[in-house]
Amino acid sequence: MVERLPRSEGNSIGYSATDELSEGEYEEILADVEEAIEEHGSAKLLMDISGVSEPYAEFDAYEEDFGFYLRHGEDMECYAVVGDDSLIEWGTEASDLVTDTEIEFFEEDELDEAWEFVEDDSGKRRE
């Protein structure tokens, strides 16, 4: 199950997932992000997957994600991933190296810090 977080506002969008994301749920999230891009010129995304056991998403959802970044990578200011798994942390760090989007991993007890990262106008993690 995926839920849009109530703190979402403007082009700062947050979601929480409690189960493996289906392709349909992923499409719903990406449609919301695309709407923010159309309305605000860019989007900032927070994805809390700390309640999800592996795998994080269906394989088709990963394909959808890749296609989205090919179309809108330059429109994404930042992306915060909140989780409790070292593999997710490693994947987040690897993604940050190969995209123009500022991507940061946060531990599950750092949700407020993740929101600050997403809501910050600079799109940079505060040290």
UniProtKB/TrEMBL annotation:
InterPro entries: SpoIIAA-like, SpoIIAA-like_sf, STAS_dom_sf. It holds the Pfam family SpoIIAA-like. This is STAS/SEC14 domain-containing protein. It comes from Halalkalicoccus tibetensis.
